[in-house]
Each structure stands twice: as structure tokens, then as C-alpha cells.
Amino acid sequence: MLTKDRLWKAIFEDFFPEAILFFFPNLHARVNWAQGYQMLDKELRELFPESKKNERRADLLARMWLEDGTEQWVLIHIEVQGYKDTDFPLRMYTAFYRLMDRFSVPIVSLALLTDRNKNWRPDVFEVAFEGTRLNFQYPVCKLSDYQDADFAQNPNPWAVVMQAGLIGLKGKWSDEALLLAKLNLYKSLRNRGYSIPQARNLLQFIKFYVRFRKRDFFISFEEEIQKIEHTNTSTMGIVELITAQQLEEATQSGREIGRKEGRKKGREEGREEGREEGEEKKAIVVIQRMLEKGFSSTVISEVLEIPESFVFTIEQQLLKKADILHLIESGEQPELEIAQQLDVHPLLVLILKESTTK
Fold first, then answer.
1. CA 241 from centre of chain
2. Residue 313 neighbours by CB under 8 Å, 6+ apart
3. Torsions phi, psi of 143, nearest 5?
4. How distant is the alpha carbon of residue 273 from its chain centre?
5. Per residue of the chain (358 residues), what is the pLDDT tens digit?
6. What are phi and psi of 256, to 5 degrees?
């Protein structure tokens, strides 16, 4: 499910060079971007297994090469919690020394704080006792220090990410006001000339970072985006191109997932099985995996030719995934009782249970 921590991690991966340019312009100029960079999720999981249990953080580890040929490791520690945490500086230091201990290379740390407490900006970890002293300082970017106008003229796509983050800082929105804010940001994005992949990734972040309370406004948002694009008659609009690209990717994704689930090859066969009675479980599996890949409910519905309302229902029920897994692991209730207690599809409970035994 596209939780905020996953959205931040994904958007950093999508716009990593742009993020480095935004936060560390001097470092960006020294990196040999032609040589590429590596995201080190495996190494991160090995060093910080406790991060799997913390849903309020998104950690990112990447390796880059400088123009002089040396390696540079960058730890980006993103905090998405909304309250003061006195253990945060210790976690930053722990991440730093574990990386230094294992790899013995220079480390760059960054704390991006997206909470609303302007007075809380932990940028140092310090301990001292009987003449022994440790002082670890690291850069902090506080989202609440900025205003939308600070990014309005910035061509860097990361400026749009920060603008979307600011929408999330403004407290409780009415759906009407949130719709207007998101559309205004998209119009601004549309006029900056970004590539199709960049526009798609930014649109997904804007769409899901702050959610509407009512489903009708989600639909209205997508309809208004289509209207904006249809005003451009000279070429195919961004959303049309995005939709076409998503459909192509989603079709391929559906085929791959379908093969793993024992489906026949081909788009039509996969769609047909999705409609056949008795294949509902497979449909839910495909929906879950495509949601994890970032496809919208609209695209999934179109590719699988199933009602969008059903896709949206599964998407909402997956928000209860942690509760479902907790009850499954307790082993105290049968699947049907869990489904009834949490008001979710019984087959979703079964699918999640099977995933824990693989």
C-alpha cells in the first residue's frame, strides 16, 4: 500500500540526482552521473533490520562515484513522523557508525523532517562522560521552514515534491480545498516542461501523499486532470501519454503476475480469467501486486476489465494489512472471523496468510 513512508522512499529513488542537486548542490557537481549510482536496499536491510518494524520512517542508502573516481556513500534518513522523538539523533548516529564500521567510506547523512513542530530540529547527537566526548552533527532540512513561493520558480522536479509535502503540512483540509490545491500544483507542474516519466511520478506523489476523505473527490481530481490536458490540442497531453504508458506497463505486469499465478499467456486470456467465476482470488492477488507497483485503480480496472469500485475496495482494505497480519500471527481466530471483525474480503485474509507461510 502507498503509505507516506513508501511514497517518500519511492520519490527519492525516482528523483535521486535531482534530490542531491536540491539538498547538496556542491556534491551534485562533483558526482560522475554518467557512471550511474546504486540503491543499496539489501545492504540497508542487513544493517538496519529494525527498520522493517518501523512504519514511520523511510531510509535510503545509495552509492555514487565522484569525478575523481572515488566512491561516495549517501545515507538519506527521512523522518515522516508528526511528533517530537528524542531518540532520533541517536538513530542518525547509529546509522552513521554502522555504515562507517562496515564500509569505511565517507558518509553523507540527511534528515528531512516533515513534522509540523517548527521548534524541533535535532541536528546533533552528543554524549560526554569523564573527559570522553562525542559530537555528531548532520544536516537537517525542515519542511516547515519553507513556503510554496520558495519553490514556484525552481525548475528542479524536487521543488514540486517539496510543494506537495507542504500541502501535507497545512493541517486538515476540506476535500474541496484539497482538490483545488492539488490541481493548482499540477497546473504548475504541467507548465515546467518535465518529461513523461517525471510527470507521471510527480502526479502519483501529488495524488496519494494527501488523500481525499471522499472517493468522489479522487474521481473528480482525475477528471479535472483530463480536462486540463484536453485544453492542449497541439499534441497528445501528458495524462494521455501517462495512461498509455501505464497501460502498456500494467498489461505486461499483469501478464507476468498471471503467469506466476498459473494464468495463460496473453492479455485477453488474463482478462478473461479475471472475469471468470472462481478466479476472484487470483484477481485480488493481481490487484495487490499492481498497487504495490504504483499503478492507479483506474489503470488496474481498465487492464483487468473489472469494476474500479472493486479495485478501490481492495485498495482500502489493504490499509488494514498490519491488523490482518497481527490477527493471523496470533493464531487465535479462523480466517472468516478475522474478515468479519475487520470488515475485509475473506480471500484477502487468505492471501495474506499464505504470504506469511512462503
1. 22
2. 345
3. -60, -35
4. 30
5. 457 777 888 889 889 999 999 999 999 999 999 988 888 888 888 887 765 555 445 678 888 888 887 777 777 766 555 567 889 899 899 989 998 898 888 889 998 998 888 889 999 999 999 999 999 999 999 999 999 999 988 999 999 999 999 998 887 889 999 999 999 999 888 888 888 778 888 988 898 888 888 888 888 888 888 887 765 433 334 444 445 555 555 555 555 555 555 444 444 444 444 344 357 888 888 888 888 877 777 778 777 777 777 888 898 889 888 889 989 888 888 888 999 889 899 999 999 988 887 6
6. -65, -45
Residues 172, 176, 179: CA angle, nearest 5 degrees: 90
Q: What is the pLDDT of residues 226-279, one digit of tens each?
A: 887 765 433 334 444 445 555 555 555 555 555 555 444 444 444 444 344 357
CB 63 within 8 A of CB 38: yes
Return the C-alpha cell found at 82: 508528526
Strands, E assignment, 185-331: none
Q: Coil, strand, or helix at residue 126?
A: strand
Whose cell is 471483525? That residue is 341
Please list the residues that pair with 140 across neighbouring strands: 111
Question: Which residues neighbour 152 within 8 Å (Cβ) at sequence distance 6 or greater?
Answer: 188
| Residue 202, C-beta contacts closer than 8 angstroms, at least 6 positions apart | 157, 160, 161, 164, 189, 194
Residue located via cell numbers 506497463: 249
Q: How far apart are CA 355 and CA 161, in angstroms?
A: 33
Q: What is the pLDDT of residues 175-229, one digit of tens each?
A: 999 999 999 999 888 888 888 778 888 988 898 888 888 888 888 888 888 887 7
Question: What would the grid cell of residue 186 be?
Answer: 499540477
d(CA 247, CA 241): 10
Residue type for position 213: R
Cα(140)–Cα(41) distance, integer angstroms: 22
Report yes or no: 347 and 287 within 8 Å, Cβ to Cβ.
no
Give the phi and the psi of residue 135 in degrees, each rounded to 5: -135, 105
Instruction: Return d(Cα 218, Cα 223) in angstroms, integer.
Output: 9
Residue 300 and residue 246: Cα distance in Å, rounded?
9
Residue type, 217: F
